[in-house]
């Protein structure tokens, strides 16, 4: 037995494993913010990353333009078709927006769940370990980014802020496998149906939308938008459209697969949405403090 | 100048890893393969082999910690994994010869070990639900092929530089 304990390597190994388990436990233990040394390291590395990112972006853009040239003809055909509808749609939207504003004024409501301040950001890094689908952006607490804010590209919702440092923040994508990766959404139809995005199916490349009542009438191609009921997401931002519907094992609820509107693979410029209306949890917390 | 070669090169590939994923590994022609560049580990393993194991393990510890903080938000995994793999490779090196083919195979073995280790930890704590079957076909094999290309490209130029560093250190 004494021989066993004097083996230096074995002790180093055991101590390392204990530290490893302790550190993993520490980082998983539902912590809301990261510690300041981590923030400091992230910001410092982020500075280097954003410097290195810019020239790389130029090179990528150059090759991207060549790729685009090949598809120009096909794309142009489709776009022309859509353009005819677009003019009418734009006029309608303007009209509806004005009407909506008038009605809100009559109700004495100056902000709704829909309103948000956009914070534009550039992606400076993407996790090379590919297990957690996360990106780093070059805006942080100083610019008004906070934890749990929704992040979009021009085409749709992509994820939420999980760690905001001072000058950079980490965004967890909806395609991540993490079980805390949730979003409350609404399926648009003649009657709106609410559900919860609760994961990502890698085989189908689609988001899993659960908690839809079995009686709800939903069909494929329906649009899915954020509901604004959870946390700090603003209402009415596009997530994707339904590609497939299945009944769950017990026949009580339905599960829909949502094809995301945004491309999770190629993300360069994003917008962080800062909701104007405070989240109910936050107002509660503030009241408690008083 | 050569004295600072190792920290500079490891920092450069540390950033390059993420740039590669951001611009190259996401392209649509790679479709559903999950390519994970392991440039940092490759350079650290080559440093372990050509400079000395102690230096390699020290750097692996430091850059593993940095990797955890900056990229994964899960402290400890790479901080422990990277030095451990450098250590294992340095032990294997004692029984094997150091020719280019053996070194290439050793580096690939190191990458495989790291991939399996991180996969096991992530499945254990529920960060991933990927099946072993899927992990092998869509993740491990493409990743190994990609990194084999990196090793072939990097091994010879780095060997020359690292031998210069090792020579300087023995002075």
Task: Describe this structure as you would to a colleague.
Chain B: Belongs to the MreD family. Chain B: One of its GO terms (biological process) is regulation of cell shape. Chain B: InterPro entries: Cell_shape_determining_MreD. The complex is a heterodimer of chains A (290) and B (171). Chain A is α+β, with helices and mostly antiparallel strands. Chain A has one domain: Rod shape-determining protein MreC, domain 2 (Thrombin, subunit H). Chain A is 37% helix and 28% strand. Chain A is built from four helices and twelve strands; from the N terminus they run αααββββββββββββα. Chain A is globular and about 80 Å long. Chain A starts with a helix and ends with a helix. Chain B is an all-alpha fold. Chain B has one domain. The mean pLDDT of chain B is 89. Classes of the chains: A alpha+beta (290), B mainly alpha (171). The interface between A and B is large, with 47 and 46 residues.
Element-by-element helix/strand order of chain B: HHHHHH
Mean pLDDT of chain B: 89
Helicity range of the residues of chain B? over 70%
C-alpha geometry of chain A:
globular
Number of H- or I-type helical stretches of chain A: 4
Q: Could you name the ranges of chain B where pLDDT drops below 50 across 5 or more consecutive residues?
A: none
Residue fraction in strands of chain A? 25-35%
Terminal CA distance of chain B reads 15 Å
Structural class of chain A: alpha+beta
List the helices and strands of chain A in order. Answer: HHHEEEEEEEEEEEEH
Q: Helix/strand-derived class of chain B?
A: mainly alpha
Query: Helix fraction of chain A?
Result: 25-40%
Oligomer: heterodimer
Number of helices of chain B: 6
Q: What is the molecular shape of chain B? A: globular
CATH topology of chain A: Thrombin, subunit H
Distance between the termini of chain A: 60 Å
User: What is the second-level CATH architecture of chain A?
Assistant: Beta Barrel
**Going across the major beta sheet of chain A, what is the strand order?**
1-2-5-4-3-12
Query: Taking Cα atoms only, what radius of gyration of chain A do you get, to the nearest Å?
Result: 23 Å
